[in-house]
């Protein structure tokens, strides 16, 4: 069984879409193994998005992800990483098909509602950042 990090980003929390998004994840058959509402600081945001540090949109990305409370969750299931990415739809909501979270609710590439780890390796790194005490076999 695999684990992945889901972030319900501040735009989705502000719009009241937390239940809708968690419901889609659960109805798919994935399981919530950890869950927290919190506002992250600059340091955690920069570490989480470290791979994008040199990109022109990095400052906007960090400002947005720290702009209010987000919901962080550890999601479990067979091929959870890929399954969550499929539920989310592509990064740019304009390209994400209806039926996906970004396709149904998003318009802007920055305010794109959710984050899901992009590989098993990223998932392990990101889960350790957000949930340092998470134990997969507990
Ligand atoms: P995350 O799940 O948030 O990591 O999104 P992703 O894996 O679909 O995309 P990626 O990791 O490549 O980019 C991280 C975030 O940076 C995205 O969610 C976008 O909000 C933002 N981003 C990516 N590409 C662009 C871009 O070309 N322009 C702008 N303004 N933002 C971008
Ligand atoms: Mg990413």
Q: What structural class do you assign from the helix and strand content? A: alpha+beta
Number of helices, counting only DSSP H or I runs of 4 residues or more? 7
- Rg on CA atoms, Å: 14 Å
Q: Assign a percent range to the helix content.
A: 40-55%
The CATH topology label is: Alpha-Beta Plaits
Task: Tell me the number of strands.
Answer: 4
Number of domains: 1
Strand order of the largest sheet: 2-3-1-4
In the predicted model, the low-confidence regions spanning at least 5 consecutive residues are none
- Architecture, CATH level 2? 2-Layer Sandwich
Cα-to-Cα separation, first versus last residue: 13 Å
Percentage of β-strand residues? 15-25%
CATH superfamily: Nucleoside diphosphate kinase-like domain
Write a structural description.
This protein has a single domain, classed as Alpha-Beta Plaits, CATH 3.30.70.141. The protein is 41% helix and 19% strand. The protein has seven helices and four strands; from the N terminus they run βααβααβααβα. The chain has helices at 10-14, 18-28, 42-48, 58-65, 80-88, 101-105, 120-130, and strands spanning 2-8, 31-38, 70-77, 114-116. The protein has a four-stranded antiparallel sheet with strand order 2-3-1-4. The chain is globular, with a radius of gyration of 14 Å. The model has no long low-confidence stretch (mean pLDDT 98). Guanosine-5'-triphosphate binds next to α4 and β4.
């Amino acid at each position: 069984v695999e684990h992945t990090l889901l972030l319900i980003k501040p735009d989705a929390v502000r719009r009241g879409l937390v239940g809708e998004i968690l419901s889609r994840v659960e109805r798919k058959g994935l399981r919530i193994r950890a869950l927290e509402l919190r506002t992250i600081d600059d340091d955690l945001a920069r570490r989480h998005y470290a791979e994008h540090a040199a990109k022109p949109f990095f400052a906007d990305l960090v400002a947005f992800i720290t702009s209010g409370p987000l919901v962080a969750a550890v999601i479990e299931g067979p091929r959870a990483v890929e399954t969550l990415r499929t539920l989310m739809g592509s990064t740019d909501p304009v390209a994400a098909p209806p039926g996906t979270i970004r396709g149904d609710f998003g318009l802007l590439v920055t305010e794109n509602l959710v984050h899901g780890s992009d590989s098993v390796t990223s998932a392990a790194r990101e889960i350790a950042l957000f949930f340092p005490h998470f134990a997969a076999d507990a």
